[in-house]
Design a protein that fits this description.
Length: 620
């Protein structure tokens, strides 16, 4: 689940300047210069060294509303405090790097590659480098005219050579006010309209902004109540807090070691006790925050508030928020936290046949150093300030990217870049923008459906020659290609792909969020060849524990045998599915050696049929 937290759009200053009678303009630099002339000229803008703004925020249709305060100092220092009642968030920039304090009080400097690029663009923008026709950093173009409401506007597009950001600004041809801005980033787009201009010390300020964030379609209305400039601001306002949150403790000493977990279908499940109920939870470094299952929240009498859209892997998810009561697992105790609430179990139950209570994500993993020993199915947690590593592993510098890690991976020596480290992902996957740009959508492979928070999305699994990760090379890997951009995190154009457990299960990992390190050791299963599906049949459990065909991949034994989505599997080789051990047992049977033949009983539209399927290597 990506982008569940809010980003407030800063107010944009504009001023009325009558230009009736001027000829149409197609020079974007002249349009921008007239805009700045209209708001008082660059000299006056540059003389505004500090500012303070207060206002209100309403996230329409979510039940979320509150207030914000914002301080700035030229060129890019800032601090912003948002209070939405359900949770609070503080963000800032000390001029060297941006930082956040999230809804659970966790301090996080943003010094990863994406954030560093964003910071550089922000600084150059504050220095007005985009107004330089000879700039090596910005390209400014005229995109013609368009209408915003009833007004005709000049459209100016600004791109840069540092990141993939694009800014489209819409200036009223009569007044040169900015009426709209469209900010396009690698992971989404924000459309902002500006209203209610008022005079503040000689300039017109838009006292209302209405923005829509895509793909979540979240609409945010910001109204200013106070605007001041050139005020005294303490320098420490822009620095991140020196004290980090302390909302957990080790039961004994400074570690909790060798905690068993269950590794089921390439996901990590561990026992957690919350509200007096001990249940399985998923460990997921791809989750921006801890997530509670909606049905479990109801069972445990945990109140749920708000309703909004968040990004799952392939699609959007409906989410709310809750105060998670204190919880514990072997060797660790946590105080209460804010958590997201989504309907997890319909997806989980379908693929593994049982329910979970939630997902332990960033809010858990960022507090400790986590060791994941896949081969021995053991987790260990260490104090971040006292842990010292003396092992044989490769230590990767990996500044935290948002709420996770982006690491370099190269496939076939060609397809390289940063990949998101995702303990909650079963397999390796190229994201759609990279796949499209590099011609991977045309590769031959086995078509299927990927499933995660938000639903399903089409994918194609292909055999590649090698994967290089942390200096280690694995041969003949299967990597999934995301076949549609969708509206989830797999549409992020900044990243190459997602690192999942089909690769990670060969290693021992240490995750150190505080120091921005990931340590990779060879695991006992480094050279192990894990069984693969030889059927092309995707089957899942129904709500009444029947085994249903979800998909039969074209050209595979499943399709050739005649399976269709919606078929109910009743038996394998004459043995009823009730006696085989559920959907996990069926999946294991489909990984038997090529040449294995099954006679499969099914119900199709209530009528019994018998199909014969012979397994084969799908990637020969």
């Amino acid at each position: 689940m990506k982008k569940t937290l809010l980003m407030l759009v800063c107010a944009v200053l504009a001023v009325i300047f009558c230009t009736s009678g001027w000829a149409a303009i197609n020079d974007p630099y002249e349009i921008l210069n007239r805009y700045y002339q209209a708001i008082g000229g660059l000299d006056k803008i540059k003389a505004m060294k500090t500012s303070y703004v207060e206002g209100t925020i309403v996230i329409e249709g979510t039940g979320l509303q509150g207030t914000f305060k914002q301080w700035t100092e030229s060129p890019i220092k800032s601090r912003q405090e948002v209070d939405l009642t359900i949770f609070k968030q503080t963000t800032g920039d000390n001029g060297q790097f941006a930082w956040t304090v999230d809804q659970n009080g966790k301090v996080q400097p943003l010094q990863d590659e994406r954030s560093t690029q964003d910071h550089q663009v922000k600084l150059l923008t504050a220095e007005f480098d985009f107004l330089n026709r000879d700039s090596k950093n910005f390209k400014v173009t005229f995109d013609g005219t368009d209408t915003v409401g009833a007004a005709t506007c000049y459209v100016v597009r600004t791109t840069n050579s540092i990141n993939q950001d694009t800014l489209q600004q819409y200036f009223d041809t009569a007044t040169f006010r900015q009426l709209q801005a469209i900010s396009i980033k690698s992971d989404g787009r924000t459309n902002t309209r500006y209203f209610d201009y008022r005079d503040v010390n000689g300039v017109l300020v838009a006292f209302e902004e209405q923005s829509v964030e895509y793909p979540t379609m979240m609409k945010q209305v910001v109204k200013l109540t106070t605007v001041k400039d050139n005020i005294a601001v303490e320098a420490t306002m822009f620095e991140p807090p020196t004290e980090d949150v302390k909302d957990f403790r080790f039961v004994n000493g400074r570690s909790a070691e060798d905690i068993p977990f269950r590794f089921i279908e390439n996901h990590i499940y561990l026992m957690v006790n919350i509200a007096g109920k001990e249940r399985l939870w998923v460990l997921d470094s791809g989750a921006d925050m801890t997530v509670l299952d909606a049905a479990f929240a109801k069972e445990a009498n945990i109140a749920v508030e708000g309703s909004m859209k968040g990004q799952g892997a392939g699609q959007l998810v409906d989410l709310s928020f809750a105060d998670l009561p204190p919880f514990s697992l072997a060797g660790l105790e946590f105080d209460k936290q804010k958590a997201a609430v989504i309907d997890i179990n319909p997806t989980i139950r379908q693929w593994v046949g049982f329910d979970i209570a939630g997902i332990l994500g960033y809010d858990f993993l960022s507090r400790v150093i986590t060791k994941v020993d896949y081969a021995n199915e053991k987790l260990s947690f260490y104090d971040v300030d006292s842990f010292v590593y003396n092992g044989p592993g490769v230590v990767l510098d990996a500044p935290v990217a948002g709420q996770g890690f982006d690491l370099p991976v190269t496939v076939d020596g060609v397809y390289g870049g940063l990949w998101s480290l995702d303990l909650g992902a079963g397999g390796m996957a190229f994201l759609y923008p990279f796949a499209e740009k590099n011609g991977l959508l045309k590769m031959k492979g086995v078509d299927g459906l990927g499933f995660g928070a938000g639903g399903s999305s089409p994918r194609r699994t292909c055999r590649f020659k090698t994967i290089e990760f942390a200096g280690f090379v694995k041969e003949k890997p299967l990597v999934t290609i995301t076949m549609e951009k969708g509206s989830g995190a797999f549409g992020d154009a900044f990243l190459t792909g997602n690192i999942g457990n089909t690769l990670l299960r060969h290693f021992v990992l240490y995750l150190d969020y505080k120091h921005g390190k990931v340590i990779v050791e060879k695991g006992k299963d480094f050279d192990r060849v894990f069984p693969e599906d030889h059927s092309g049949l995707t089957a899942g459990a129904t709500t009444d524990n029947k085994i249903e065909v979800v998909y039969a991949s074209p050209g595979t034994p499943a399709e050739k045998a005649g399976f269709k989505a919606g078929d109910i599997i009743t038996s394998f080789n004459g043995i009823g599915t009730d006696y085989l051990g559920g959907v996990l047992a069926i999946i294991k049977m489909l990984r038997e050696k090529p040449g294995t033949t099954y006679t499969v009983g099914i119900l199709r539209d209530g009528k019994p049929l018998t199909l014969k399927m012979t397994l084969k290597d799908l990637y020969e």
